[in-house]
Amino acid sequence: MTPSLEVSGLAFAYPDGHQALFGVDFSLARGERVALLGPNGAGKTTLVLHLNGILTGGTGTVTVAGLPVGKKHMAEIRRRVGIVFQDPDDQLFMPTVREDVAFGPAAAGLKGPELEERVDRALGRVGMAEFKDRPPHHLSFGQRRRVAVATVLAMEPEILVLDEPSSNLDPASRRELADILRSLDVTVLMVTHDLPYALELCPRSLVLSDGVIAADGATAELLADDTLMRAHRLELPYGFDPRSVPAAPGRS
Amino acid sequence: MHAPDGFINAPVSAVVGVAAAGAIAVSLRGARRELEGASRPGAAGSGGERTAPLAGLVAAFIFAVQMLNFPVAAGTSGHLLGGALAAILVGPFTGVLCVSVVLLMQAVLFADGGLTALGVNVTTMAITTTVVAYALFRGLVKVLPRTRRSVTAASFVAALVSVPASAVVFTLLYAVGGTTDVSIGKVATAMVGVHVLIGIGEAVITALTVGAVVAVRPDLVHGARGLTRKLKLRVNGELVDAPDAAEPEPVPAARSPRTVWITGLVTSLVLAGFVSFYASASPDGLEKVAGDHGIDEKAEEHAIAGSPLADYGVEDVDDDRLSGGLAGVIGVGVTVVAGTGVFWVVRRRRAEDTADAASPTRTGV
Amino acid sequence: MGTGHAHKLYRHGHSPVHALPPHTKIAAGLAFVVVVVSTPREAMWAFAVYAGLLALVAHTARVPAGFLLKRLLIEVPFVAFAVLLPFVAEGERIDVLGLSLSVNGLWGAWNVLAKGTLGVAASVLLASTTELRELLLGLQRLRLPPLLVQIASFMVRYGDVITDELRRMRIARESRGFEARGVRHWGVLAKSAGALFIRSYERGERVHLAMVSRGYAGSMPVIDEVTASRAQWSYASLLPGAALAVCLLGWIR
């Protein structure tokens, strides 16, 4: 089976010479949930912007379900890779929830009842169906984050990329979002500093540090490796012991 | 200055509306080029697609910043009108679009400014302020030493002149299509005089604001591009240097003599207006205006506009002669400026049309 | 300008006026105002009829008179201007209560007041019966350039977000003991404005990224298209139609 996402030898320097990525290699199997961990400045954002071709021009390749990221298939790539940005206000730019969720599929040419159906399904999956005609700024932060996920789900992506999904959420919203993410059957790549959240949701983790993948393995093992953690400026919250928590169940 | 319906007669409103629509159509094209300038390194796709979100956010900024109160003295406060600021920060075309959209939404959503007066309001408040301010700003930046302080100084002068210039254009429109037979000298004196006062406030705020932006993100100050050696771009929170590739000059060098010329003309015009105002209305009247009304947020020019007018009404014949002369000067000056502006726009547009004749952009309104 | 902008005029309701497609309402409102502005000012009775027509619309739309009247306050600065006109205008003068007033100025004042008031009232009725979203769709349908409509939509969407940022910055300033009292504090306020601009612009860049990520390539996909039937158009045109008849009568007499 072709992997959902394959990144190999990806290196990228910004035009001023500042190099952010130094040969990133990893691959995600279909349906996997993987956390991308790393300190600030490790190149996480740069990497994410490569996944749907917003940044290009370095060396190496990114392949999404067999399709190489490049100018040729940009529209299809952007449909397949759904990025949920950190601030839902940036993501929700249309006047109503419904139109925002419809934006992606409509840009891809869907219309009429088919479009409506797609919107309803996406909103249903994040439990926001009854907020369809509300303007986004009247929703709570947690609700906006869920709608942001729906906007991307509506495009039926191959892979869902979330940038700091748990930031600014209260514990209840954080848990609701976890339930939603668990219920999805798409490949998920989650960029986060929230290590307990990574442990809860993602059986596997990647550690990006200084522009390369420094570690790749089971989340529970990585978090329990004190030397590794210290070397890459990753810290667990006070009193949290990954060994005492059951690891995230893999998908069958 | 939001003129209501019935202030300017129907035919003139219609003609001005068509002219304003034309200017907006030109700006729609120009804005694409302006916002392309700060393109992200290595980004796929650029230009037109950035226009809507960026101009929309800048419009929202102008809308919001008009609510920021600047206290003048006990109990009174002023606020920014924003035309000059928009022009300097994002360029004249985007500036025109942003302020026009703000005016449109104010008219439709808040009944602020008449629907038939929309063309008049866009012409005076969006087009005149941004074009005058930008031409002046670019001219000054070219002449002055290339420092940040020059940018601030140029912003000050540009904003200072843009507000009375807009009053001058309004007076001109009133002269052609005003519904009441008030001597144009009186209207001009009152409008320009009061707007010089407002312009000072606008100038201070604009200069300080531009100064604050230049200090942090000089690359975002459209009018000051080329002053910085290396641009920084922010890619999702990370500061990244932009390529050294030459930025497209917003105003090609070939046009600069004309820019300088307009600058000189507008400056002298407003200076003339300012001096004549002091010569004609008693200084007491001016102080009274400031004292009674301040640069009050809501009443603003309308309420103030009355006072020197009334004050003027009891002045003797000498002043009438003076104000007549002043009106002449202003009338001629405005005609020249407006004519040059139209010429400039038409030329620009023609160049644009030949450049991308195949572009399917809708230009009608 | 002022705090009034923060409030939306829209009043939720299910009247026949609310139900009309937005573009028919905008067109009707504009046509009505054009007719009003074109009416000779000497035909005073015509303006009374116009006011009656608007009152009828307000009644149909179930917009309370108080709401409408309160909103007319936005006109006050121009009332001040209008009051001055009889004193300063040229031409023949008459004496009223010992004051020398210009006849032309009196007519001018009446003209500005009557037309301005009717214009504001018509705009208020439009705004109070049409949702923000619908207004944008209506403008789009009326063939406003799509880019302009997009800019307006973004302004509407982010106006609140940015006003909120402005408010948070003020609270942050005040929490640290700063209170703007005079001109010498303008520097601090201008820094806020500058910071607000940078935040707005950067948000614009992020929004653009989010849009591109979902397949945006310069034009908005059409998600909603408002349409109007012939019946709806004729219903909406009742107002300007009646006004036009009145206007013509005004010119003939």
From TrEMBL, chain A:
GO terms for molecular function: ATP binding; ATP hydrolysis activity; ATPase-coupled transmembrane transporter activity. It holds the Pfam family ABC_tran. CDD domains: ABC_cobalt_CbiO_domain1. It is found in: Cell membrane. Transmembrane segments: none annotated. It comes from the Bacteria. It is a peripheral membrane protein. Keywords: ATP-binding, Cell membrane, Membrane, Nucleotide-binding, Translocase, Transport. InterPro entries: AAA+_ATPase, ABC_transporter-like_ATP-bd, ABC_transporter-like_CS, ABC_transpr_CbiO/EcfA_su, Co_trans_ATP-bd, ECF_ABC_transporter_ATP-bd, P-loop_NTPase. Belongs to the ABC transporter superfamily. Probably part of an ABC transporter complex. Responsible for energy coupling to the transport system. Part of an ABC transporter complex. Responsible for energy coupling to the transport system. This is ABC transporter ATP-binding protein. It comes from Streptomyces caelestis. The lineage of its organism: Bacteria, Bacillati, Actinomycetota, Actinomycetes, Kitasatosporales.
